């Protein structure tokens, strides 16, 4: 094979995204609160950006007398950077504007008092809404331990045991006691560790620091509760049989009746298999709807973008004047031209986001009117490609538009992605959403004969009677995802004829 080196010219198409296009897509993807933060960041970095001060206590007013883009006077037209012609037209227009302005400008950029007050209010709200750190499981146990009068060595071992407990794991002791001791430990040290574990297990919540589920449940029992001795027998020897609903086998081995076992099982369900989980830090984010959906007097849905808190941006008059100041240096003028271009692109991107998000929301609402009118069982299959085709944009634009966006509807605040569901076809060729199938599946199981529950194969047949053709593996998958036990586990043995 002959090899050679040389230069060749080839023509090929490569798609690249300009930085401004990337910024525009990022703006589209931001939810309202994140957009506010982005605008604040841009305003801090770009001194040419100013925001219109609006009194939030005043009702929104539409200025019918405001001139449109086509009817604006020469002075009111947007400032556009034109590098090819050195902005000659804009310079003349700006010079006239500066001459007509009644106020003078300082040589330095000043933040308006309203903007400074807005920043202070925002910081105050953040501090006021900041959640205090909840007490951890370890702290809760250590506080109880500190109130006990015990040997110092035992207390240190107890503290070591507590340090290994994790609320996310339910508060179980997963580390062997021997691993908590030093390398040259003695039998006495191991005895002290067992004593320390007993002390930790005596603390609240009951069942904490157990080494397995059986020990966790046993530590929660009290001789005063009903069926105390029977519960100990079931916990120690028959937990798996209880989980699998094999009650006849338990009855055969224990001589308990089915009714007794069921009653004991109900008592067991009152125990906590993960006592430490109550101390998990749960974060529940505040959901602020980006879109408001309302019905007019005729019952028609109207989409409104809830962006009242998104400030209206404009380019600073001060820097417009600096651009025309004969004392401005070439570097200063170039800086201002660059920042004007950046500011105008941000303003246009925000407006494009508003337009795209509104169109996408309107198309979604139009497709899912039955869902909004009748409820979840009436939701229809919908893919993002369908909305993209209807709005006339790329499917990735729809994906960015609905990402992390919420809509306030008469049925509550829902994520926009909630309206996109897959589905299948009935025997009649009609589309049916998977959510509808899941609701029907739940309905069938709720109404089944508990002495002889439906198997997954029987559920397939029942769904077929409702014109829903679904594979058995699909029924099994959704049953498990919905947390519904198998037919054997759902059987009520007290209803089975003997």
**What does the average pLDDT come to?**
79
**Low-confidence runs:** 59-113, 126-131
Shape from CA axes? flat
The CA-CA distance between the termini, in Å, is 85 Å
Order of helices and strands: HHEHHHHHHHHHHEEEHHHHHEEEEHHHH
- Gyration radius, to the nearest Å? 34 Å
Helix content: 40-55%
Q: Describe the largest sheet.
A: 4 strands, mixed
- Strand composition percent: 5-15%
Q: Could you tell me the number of beta strands? A: 8
Strand order of the largest sheet: 3-2-5-6
Counted by DSSP, the helix tally is 21
- By helix and strand content, what is the structural category? alpha+beta
What does this structure look like?
This protein has 498 residues and is an alpha+beta fold. It is 48% helix and 6% strand. It has a 4-stranded mixed β-sheet, covered by helices on one side. A hairpin with a 2-residue loop joins strand 5 and strand 6. About 12% of the residues have low confidence.
Short description:
This is RNA polymerase sigma-54 factor. The protein has helices at about 20-30, 30-45, 90-100, 115-130, 135-145, 150-165, 185-200, 215-220, 230-235, 240-245, 245-255, 260-270, 315-325, 330-365, 370-375, 385-390, 395-400, 435-445, 455-465, 470-480, 485-490; strands at about 50, 290-295, 300-305, 315, 405-410, 410-415, 425, 430-435.
């Amino acid at each position: 094979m002959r090899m050679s080196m040389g230069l060749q010219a080839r023509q090929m198409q490569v798609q690249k995204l300009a930085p401004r296009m990337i910024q525009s897509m990022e703006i589209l993807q931001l939810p309202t609160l994140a957009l506010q933060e982005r605008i604040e960041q841009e305003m801090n970095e770009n001194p040419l950006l100013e925001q219109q001060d609006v009194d939030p206590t005043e009702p929104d007013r539409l200025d019918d007398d405001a001139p449109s883009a086509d009817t604006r006077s020469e002075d009111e037209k947007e400032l556009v950077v034109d590098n090819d012609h050195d902005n000659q037209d804009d310079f003349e227009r700006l010079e006239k504007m500066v001459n007509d302005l009644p106020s003078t400008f300082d040589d330095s950029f000043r933040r308006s008092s309203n903007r400074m007050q807005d920043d202070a209010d925002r910081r105050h709200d953040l501090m006021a809404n900041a959640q205090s750190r909840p007490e951890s499981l370890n702290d809760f146990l250590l506080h109880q331990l500190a109130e006990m009068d015990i040997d110092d060595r035992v207390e240190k071992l107890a503290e070591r045991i507590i340090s290994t407990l994790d609320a996310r794991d339910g508060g179980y002791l997963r580390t062997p006691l021997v691993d908590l001791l030093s390398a040259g430990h003695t039998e006495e040290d191991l005895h002290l560790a067992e004593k320390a574990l007993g002390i930790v297990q005596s603390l609240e919540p009951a069942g904490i620091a157990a080494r397995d589920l059986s020990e966790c449940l046993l530590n929660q029992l009290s001789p005063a509760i009903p069926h105390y001795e029977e519960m100990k027998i079931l916990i120690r020897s028959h937990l798996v049989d209880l989980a699998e609903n094999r009650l006849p086998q338990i009855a055969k081995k224990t001589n308990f009746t089915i009714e007794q076992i069921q009653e004991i099982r109900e008592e067991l369900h009152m125990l906590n298999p993960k006592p430490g989980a109550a101390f998990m830090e749960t974060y529940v984010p505040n959901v602020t709807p980006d879109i408001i959906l309302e019905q007019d007097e005729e019952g028609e849905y109207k989409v409104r973008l809830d962006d009242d808190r998104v400030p209206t941006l404009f380019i600073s008059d001060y820097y417009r004047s600096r651009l025309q100041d004969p004392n401005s240096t070439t570097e200063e003028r170039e800086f201002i031209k660059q920042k004007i271009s950046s500011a105008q692109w941000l303003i246009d991107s925000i407006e494009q986001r508003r337009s795209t998000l509104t169109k996408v929301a309107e198309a979604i609402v139009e497709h899912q009117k039955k869902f909004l009118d009748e409820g979840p069982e009436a939701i229809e299959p919908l893919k993002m490609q369908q909305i993209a085709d209807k709005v006339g944009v790329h499917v990735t634009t729809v994906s960015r538009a609905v990402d992390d966006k919420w809509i306030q509807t008469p049925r509550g605040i829902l994520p926009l992605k909630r309206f996109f569901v897959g589905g299948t076809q009935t025997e009649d060729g009609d589309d049916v959403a998977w959510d509808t199938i899941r609701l029907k599946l739940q309905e069938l199981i709720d109404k089944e004969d508990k002495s002889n529950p439906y198997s997954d194969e029987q559920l397939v047949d029942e769904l077929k009677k409702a014109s829903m053709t679904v594979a058995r593996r699909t029924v099994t998958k959704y049953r498990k995802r919905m947390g519904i036990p198998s037919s054997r586990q759902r059987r009520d043995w007290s209803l089975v004829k003997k």
